[in-house]
Amino acid sequence: MSMFLAIKSQCLFPYQSHFKNRPIELVLPQTFFPRFRNGPRHRNCILAKAEDKARENSDRQLEELTTSSGTCDPLCSVDETSSQEFEATYQPKTDFLKAFAILAAAVTGTIAINQSWVAANQDIAMALLFGVGYMGIIFEESLAFNKSGVGLLMAVSLWVIRSIGAPSNDIALSQLSHATAEVSEIVFFLLGAMTIVEIVDAHQGFKLVTDNITTRKPITLLWVVGFVTFFLSSILDNLTSTIVMVSLLRKLAPPSEYRKLLGAVVVIAANAGGAWTPIGDVTTTMLWIHGQISTLPTMKGLFLPSVVSLAVPLALLSLTSEVNGKGQNSAEVLASEQMAPRGQLVFAVGLGALVFVPVFKALTGLPPYMGMLLGLGVLWIITDAIHYGESERQRLKVPQALSRIDTQGALFFLGILLSVSSLEAAGILRELANYLDAHIPSTELIASSIGIVSAIIDNVPLVAATMGMYDLSSFPQDSEFWQLIAFCAGTGGSMLVIGSAAGVAFMGMEKVDFFWYLRKVSGFAFAGYAAGIVTYLAVHNLDISLPTALAQIPFLHGS
C-alpha cells in the first residue's frame, strides 16, 4: 500500500491578500522518492524543490489574476479602464450646454402649461419640444444625459401637449392607445430577440462561427471577416454582430492600423447585412411589423444591393497600403472562453428560434413578436432543463440573461417611437410629407437623402417619421420606396462612425477616433452606399420576377 508524505510549507506570499496565511500543501507518494529515507540532505533537497515549485505555481496564478483583472471580457461592449486611467483622462463636462438644455426645456414646459396657447399653436409647441428633446439625444455625451431618459421625457411631454390640443380628450386617448399597441409590438420583439442572443452569447455559442476563421492573410482576412459579419448580421442585430466580430479580431490581429480597418469593415458589413432581412436591423423590423415590407420580396430585392454596398468598400480597402502593403501574416491568437456545456444545442435552438419567426407569422397570421416570444419560451425551458441543479451556472439561464440585455436601449426605442407617433397623430408628419412631395418629386432622392441623414441622426426616428409621413395608400407594400427606405436607413449609418449602433460599439471597443474613421473609411462607405442604390435601381428597372418555385412557397410568399 502506498504511503503518502504531506509536505506543508507555511510560506507567506506578500503579493496579494488572496494568498496570505494560506499554507501550500503538497501530497506526494513516498514511492516517488526512494532515496528520501537516506538522510536529511535528501529531505531538505526535496523540500526546497517542492517550495520552489509552489512559488512558481503561485507566481503563475498571480500573473493570471492580474492579467484577467485588467482585460475586458471577450464579448463586452467597451474596454474596462483602471481607476488611475479614469482619473488621468477624466475631463469635467462643460456646464454651459447642460444649463442651456435645461433652460430650453424649462421654457418649453412653461409654454406648454399655458393651455390656451398650446391649443392654438399645437404644431409649433410639439415641433419645438421635439427639436429640444432631439438635440438632447444627439448631444447626450456632451450633456451627460442618457438618451433613454430624454426620449421617455420627450414622449410623455409631447402626448401631454397632444391631449391639450386635440379636439377632445377621448380622441387623444384613442390615438395614444393605437400608438401604444403598435410600439409595444416592436419593443416586445426586441426584448425577445435580445434575450435569445444574450443566452446564446452566454453559452459562447458564437464560437462555432468565429473559431472557423483560420486565415491570417491580410486581404483574405479582410474579405472573410466582412462576409461572415454580413451573414451573421442578417440573423442577429447589427450591434450584437459587431460586438462578436470585434472581439474575434482581438484574437486574429494585434493592435494596429490594420485591425482598426478590420473593425471598420465589421461596421459596414453589419449594417449592410442587417438591411436585407426583416430581422437583421431594427428599422427593417419596424417596416416589416407594420406591413410596409414582407419577407421574400425584401430579401430578393435588397440582397444584391447589400452585397454590393459591402463589396465595393472591401475592394477599395484591399488597395490601401494598410492592407495590401502588409507583408506579414499575423499568427498571434489570444485565448478566449470555452464553450459552455450544451452550448451547441443552445446555439442551434436560439438560431432556429430567430429564423422561425417569419415562418410563424406566415403560418398563423399572428404578429412577429408572438413568434419571438414562442422561441424565447422554448429556449427558456431548455436552458432550465439542461442546467437543472447546477447552481454555479445560473448566469447561463434566462433570468440572469434578462438582467444583462440592453433594457435602456429598448426604452429608448419606446420613447422615440411614442414621440414620433404623437407627431403623426397631430398631423405634423403628413404636412411634412406633402412639403417634400411638392419640392422633391423623386421618391428615390427622398429615400437616398434619408439614408445620408441617418449617418448623423439615429435611423430609428427617421424611419418612424417616414412611416408616419407616408402610409400604404401612398406607397403599397414592397414598393420601391419602402425597400429603398429599408436599404438606405440601414446602410447609410456606415458613412460616419456615430451613424449606427454598430459604429458606436466599435468606437468604444477599439478606441477609434471620429476623425480617423472620417479620413480612412467614410469615403469608401459612401462609395458602397451609392453603388448599392444604383444596383437596386438597375435591378428594379429590369423587373426581375421571382422564380415560380420560390413564389409558391407558402410560408415565404407575402409574409
TrEMBL record:
Domain Citrate transporter-like span(s) in chain numbering: 134-467
Bilayer topology: Multi-pass membrane protein
InterPro entries: Cit_transptr-like_dom, NhaD-like
Top-rank lineage group of the source organism: Eukaryota
Location(s) in or outside the cell: Membrane
Transmembrane segments: 99-118, 124-145, 220-249, 261-279, 299-319, 345-363, 369-389, 410-429, 449-472, 484-509, 521-539
Keywords (A to Z) from UniProt: Antiport, Ion transport, Membrane, Sodium, Sodium transport, Transmembrane, Transmembrane helix, Transport
Family per similarity comment: Belongs to the NhaD Na(+)/H(+) (TC 2.A.62) antiporter family.
Protein name, entry field: Citrate transporter-like domain-containing protein
Organism: Solanum tuberosum
